[in-house]
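A.,

Following up on our hallway conversation. Structure tokens first:
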């Protein structure tokens, strides 16, 4: 079995695969920029994770975890770039919130940040929309592969 963090990332990939604009161009990677033939496309990654157990006197075995899941939407820079990115955002939000608890993997899910950017790292410039979700989930200390 895999870490719950990976299970959550995989669930996001499943939910956003097959959307109208990006289709099956969904990747579990943040290392390499997408090539022109992979655009428009989405990259899904797990970001910062915090453990919400702040009370040092309270020795709990339950880990209250807060995880950022980043969906990196990329499109070729064309006329109507912002409209295309907003369409992708609408499709992603609709798909993700259709399964708000990600098949009982998370206790809560919120859209945290939407950050537009431009990049010239690829064959031709691309528009980027970083879509960051915050999920809360619980595991038992020392048992990170099982959600509570």
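Then the amino acids I'd put at each of the 148 positions:
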């Amino acid at each position: 079995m895999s870490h719950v963090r990976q299970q959550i990332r995989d669930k996001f990939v499943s939910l956003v695969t097959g959307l109208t604009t990006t289709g099956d161009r969904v990747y579990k990677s943040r290392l390499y920029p997408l090539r022109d033939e992979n655009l428009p496309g989405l990259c899904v990654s797990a970001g910062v994770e915090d453990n919400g157990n702040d009370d040092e006197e309270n020795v709990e075995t339950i880990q209250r975890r807060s995880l950022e899941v980043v969906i990196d939407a990329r499109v070729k820079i064309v006329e109507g770039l912002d409209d295309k990115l907003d369409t992708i955002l609408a499709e992603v939000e609709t798909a993700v919130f259709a399964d708000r608890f990600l098949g009982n993997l998370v206790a809560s899910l919120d859209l945290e940040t939407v950050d537009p950017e431009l990049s010239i790292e690829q064959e031709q410039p691309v528009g980027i929309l970083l879509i960051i979700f915050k999920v809360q989930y619980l595991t038992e200390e020392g048992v990170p592969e099982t959600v509570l």
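The CA atoms of residues 88 and 107 lie 25 Å apart. Curious whether your intuition agrees with the design.

B.
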